[in-house]
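Question: does this match?
>
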Amino acid sequence: MFDQMEWDSADDGLGDLMDEPPYLSESPQSKLSTSSISENEFSCHCCYDILVNPTTLTCGHNFCRHCLALWWESSHKNECPECREKWEGFPKINILLRDATDKLFREVVQRRRAEIQANPKISQSLLAFQRYGDNLGRSRTNQHKGAGFFFSGVLSALTCVAVMVLVYHWSYGVVEQHDLLISKPVSRWTPEEVVSWLEQLGPWAQLYREPFQQENVNGRLLLMLGEEELLKSPYSIENQAHRRAVLAELDRVKALGVKPPQNLWEYKAANAGKSLFLLYALKRSPRLTIFYLYLFDYSETFLPFLHTCCPAIAHIDQEVESRFLETQVEPSWRQWAEFLVKYCLLPYQLIAEFAWDWLAVHYWTSRFIIVNAMLLSVLEGCALWRLWTRARIRTLPQKMGNHLWKMLSQGFAFALLWPFVPQFVCNCLFYWALYFSPIINIDLVVQQLMHPETQAL
């Protein structure tokens, strides 16, 4: 009986123990395991401090998010800082481990977060790391976008076809009529071609069209004309400005042996390789290209470019009848000052202003060039802003040196390969850069302006 009473009392105690809630019945072993948790088990293997935003790699090692970003930015390698195993995809924050460290080491984590946020270098590294992950995810999405990728390929194919059709049409149709006097020697000009050359000097030249027609002046007679002949009958060009304009253009014709280019298409026909080089070079590096024109093509290209973009203040009674005479005058110090400011700060604005001056001659082409210059200005501003916000503005001289070497090597390679490239291919590249490059730059500008600055902390 006594034994039965002992068993009953034991059963009652066991029942009472089982009725207690689990959180009130903490065993000594659980207390021991909780108290035995140390900071070393939740420390980063880079900074050896408590993990902040712990990120787990595919190899299983955990690191602070900012430590991993600094390692990636300095090494440019997608591998574990400890075991050097490459990770797959883009590392994500371990949410379970982050919540655990926030609860166990709240004060330490809060202090470290404040220190990280106060450090601009770490913040920029985190932004760059997150931007790399966004671009990686965007590229993977583009690889599997199905119908969108298909239609993009179809659009690119149609664009290439449109470029080739445009090149074929302009190479053998519209531009052909401008090529005759540019490629034909002056001594072989017919009287009709001499009159056509005279009319292209300006509206004022219509006054002297009839004498040239009556005298049946051909190319050989044109080369023998001088100031005395133009002043006497039957030409009777008594206006001194008109006579100077005709003589200046005549001197250019004698020096070149052909008619000098008067517009973009004639310039391209006379200088096919140079026009293609300038088109791409002005887009990639306008400052170096303008400096190249200053050194090696001062009178023919640089001076007209400067006078067009930074015109001199002309008096009301001043009458300049020849565009060539106007652009061969040495610029004033005001023009040089305006040009240098635009050259250093807004080089693409110079290109836009030059295209705007030719708006009456090249209606749509000038508009394409102006839009492209605006887009390239925005892209250049975004690139400088990224350098400034990432505290990498000190690397600008190094980047400029690398860019200079790249442009020089590409220009040298172009000079070597240009004679072997078919003219049709060069025309395709020319019209692609002229008319379809702005479409690509619009997409780049949208990506730069609409891309959100991701806060990783």
In short: The first helix runs from residue 2 to 19. The chain has a mean pLDDT of 77. The first strand starts at residue 55 and ends at 56.
